[in-house]
Design brief:
With 295 residues, this protein is α/β, with parallel strands linked by helices. It has an eight-stranded mixed beta sheet, with no helix packed on it. It is rod-shaped.
């Protein structure tokens, strides 16, 4: 009896060990014995570093793993298992192959989706009536994107350097910089010459200013003269003065220069006085400022 119990215990122990080993092997292979996972496919142009059991994250949280990676002539097909049966991934879903950290590490599939609430009552990913236009469903196929890797960036930079060396861009750039420097120096010299020219112009304007002031005074006198001539009263007085001057001239012609006769001639003296008064009044009208200063 005791022997049978011992054999039974040993048998159950061996069976448990084999079952545990089998379950562990299935776990390593990514096979789930439960019905809690669901799967969709993401196609990538490049899935460098991605392999079975690679982590799958959604907004930075691990939600599944890569089940299988298959390379075809047109794309890399990646089967993704999600271990949360009720997780709804809104469309359009963005899937990228990225490094696990900034310092590198294993590649992961990073999932992101628009931040928008789904309509109430939207079926889950495993439901028969799952709406593929709203969410990613079990068995859906999406187009993934490949993030730039350090090796790709290095290769692109190397291509740019090779192209620059091929087209002699660096010597041309040096020549261009030299030309810019020469142009800058010439522009500086031009600015200095311009400043000197401006200084000369200011000196010339300062020297010409007295002449401009004299011209302004002459213009003022001319305008005053024209304004006086435009006055009918002044014109009438001027005509009278001219008439008196004509009479005076006739008298001088008659007497032939005899001063005594001229001074004793009342008509002559009155005419001379009239001429003097008329001319004085006329000049008072033309040069009012100067006559006031004399007074």
């Amino acid at each position: 009896m005791r022997r049978s119990v011992k054999e039974a215990i040993v048998g159950f122990t061996l069976l448990a060990a084999v079952s545990s080993a089998g379950l562990f092997w299935l776990w390593l292979k990514g096979v789930s014995v439960s019905n809690r996972t669901w799967r969709f496919q993401a196609n990538f142009a490049d899935a460098a570093g991605l392999a079975p059991r690679s982590a799958v994250t959604y907004r930075g949280v691990t939600v599944g793993h890569v089940q299988e990676v298959t390379a075809t002539a047109t794309a890399v097909e990646v089967q993704i298992d999600i271990n949360q049966p009720n997780l709804q991934l809104p469309q359009p879903l963005d899937a990228r192959v990225e490094a696990a950290s900034l310092l590198g590490g294993d590649a992961v599939v990073a999932l992101t989706a628009p931040i928008k609430p789904l309509p109430k009552g939207t079926p889950g990913p495993k439901a028969m009536n799952c709406n593929r236009a709203l969410t990613v469903c079990n068995g859906s196929v999406i187009q993934g994107k490949s993030a730039a890797t350090l090796s790709q960036v290095t290769a692109t930079l190397q291509q740019l350097l090779d192209q620059a060396e091929k087209e002699k861009l660096i010597p041309k750039l040096a020549t261009t910089i030299s030309s810019i420097d020469t142009t800058a120096k010439e522009a500086t010299a031009f600015m200095k010459d311009g400043q000197a020219l401006i200084g000369d112009l200011r000196t010339t304007v300062r020297d010409v200013q007295p002449t401009i002031n004299n011209l302004n005074d002459s213009t003022a006198h001319i305008l005053n003269f024209v304004r006086v001539l435009d006055n009918p009263k002044t014109l009438s007085e001027l005509k009278g003065t001219v008439a008196n001057l004509e009479d005076l001239t006739a008298t001088l012609d008659r007497v032939g220069g005899d001063i005594n006769k001229l001074t004793s001639d009342k008509r002559f003296m009155d005419g001379l006085r009239s001429v003097a008064i008329g001319l004085g009044a006329f000049f008072d009208e033309v040069y009012p400022e100067k006559t006031e200063a004399r007074r």
